[in-house]
Amino acid sequence: MKLSLCIATYNEETNLHYPLDSAYNLVDEVIIVDGGSTDKTIQIAKSYGNKVKIIQTNNPPMFHINK
């Protein structure tokens, strides 16, 4: 069985490491859906390597509630 972690983000550079560090070794992939961050969220996510897939959108910060 393959286990994926999906995280919706928007300017989460100070918090993103918490879920990534906690779950990284427990999952097969991490999917980050970013709502147009203007900070270092994407750079931090990319630093975790190939296991992290990033989907970037330009939707408003609350985009994940309506999807």
UniProtKB/TrEMBL annotation:
InterPro entries: Glyco_trans_2-like (IPR001173), Nucleotide-diphossugar_trans (IPR029044). Transmembrane segments: none annotated. Residues 4-58 form the Glycosyltransferase 2-like domain. Coiled coil: none annotated. Gene3D superfamilies: Spore Coat Polysaccharide Biosynthesis Protein SpsA, Chain A. It comes from the Bacteria. This is Glycosyltransferase 2-like domain-containing protein.
